[in-house]
Specification:
It is built from 19 helices and no strands.
Amino acid sequence: MRTQNALKNLYITIFQKVVDLILLFIQRTVFIRVLGVTYLGVSGLFSNIFTIFSLMELGIGSSIIYLLYKPLADGDKEEISKLMQIYKKFYNAVGIGILIIGIVLIPGLKYIVNMNNGIDNLYLIYLLTLFSTSVSYFFSYKRSLLEADQKLYISNLNIFVFNSLATVLRIIVLILFENYLLFLTVTIVMSFISNLVISRKVSKMYPDIKFNQKIKLKEINLKPIFSRMFAVSLNSIGNVVLTGTDNIIMSMYVGLTMVGLYSNYYMFTNMIYTTVSWLFISVTAGVGNLFATKEKENAFIVFKRMNFINYYFYFICCIMLFAFVNPLISIWIGNSYLFGKITVFIIVLNLFMTGMRHTNVTFINASGLYYNIKYKPIIEAIINLVLSLILAKFMGVNGILLGTFISLFCVSMWLEPYILYKEWFKKDWKEYFVKFFGRMGLMLVLMFIIEYIISICNITNILLLILLAFTVFIILNIVFIIIYHKKEEFKYYFDLISNILKKILEKVKSYVIKK
């Protein structure tokens, strides 16, 4: 059942993300043509600001999802009902708290954004973005039950449908009215409807769960929740500072225009990261179920397989991104929107370093080991913030991005796998790092070889770019197969794909015979 649910989540996630990328690409094109790069910078900046506001969530979601694994495995509906009531109360408080704090901080906006940037209604734009962030908390708590119950594909499908509708409507609004305020209004309305629909869907799916029962917090043992929340909240703070402050520092040191340029690259890296993240979120509940049902002996095998497929995704994506992102942006919106190769390299390197944490974070989440490294994110965040602020003065955008890389390399890359191997797997942690640096070295060598070849091809049209990208994709897969085909992890996925293809062929054959 775990494999079936994970595969179902996988198929839907891949399909959704491909369509999302196409629609987002069209929307971004229209946005830049109609409103310009400065509005793009404002959008990216405010998104980062409200990402920081999300710290008020304090790890509630992750904590309760973790605590839901066991009662779901045991069929304990009363305990599930209590946990969902706690979730609802906390999330309502978070939504209201974000709204209040956002309004209180309005006078400080002038210290982050140059108010003479030619953008009208900047405060109203801020308020609409604030309201959009706040309202998302009032219904979304029920999605956690789907995630914990390995049915995240239902939530993902809901998000896909309403995000797609919202994107189409936003494109229409931009073309017809050229108005950013209407653009934001569409986002708010569609987000509200999406959460309302999924809320009703979950209520029907789980009729025995008492979502609206009045439960007083004093009647519930909150100690395990608060204990885990402490560790997870420290991690949330660290992650937000690590990934959510780059645009703010850029706005303060190099201006909104540079934030707008960076947002185009961030669109591609974020699409890759969130796609793979969703794949791992899809299987987190299965990993949690492994721990909840005491199937720990299989955990290390599953870890190695997941880490291998995670590397495959980033091996392909990082090499192709480094080679093709500048030619693509040049054809798409022009050379004036390009960063230099050094900046692109640091962006891709940050993507690889962040992405290769997926497996570690998934297992740490599922096993409850975050408490063991509760201060790690704070140390990492301080290193990142201090280095980014110092290096920004001397190196601009490169310095800000380099600060993120150094903090990732010095802290998370070492500590997370070390804790997993020592505390859970009880194995030699050096094995992990030998594999990591070997895999990273191979990727970097191929990255520079492919990029050099592509740079002398003088790509001037989209057809040539697609042809070269397809060719490189095939070559990289051949190289990957040659190098890793004897590994147990490779054989596992090869057999898995072979079995899926056999079943598909059998169904097609059966259908043809019936006809």
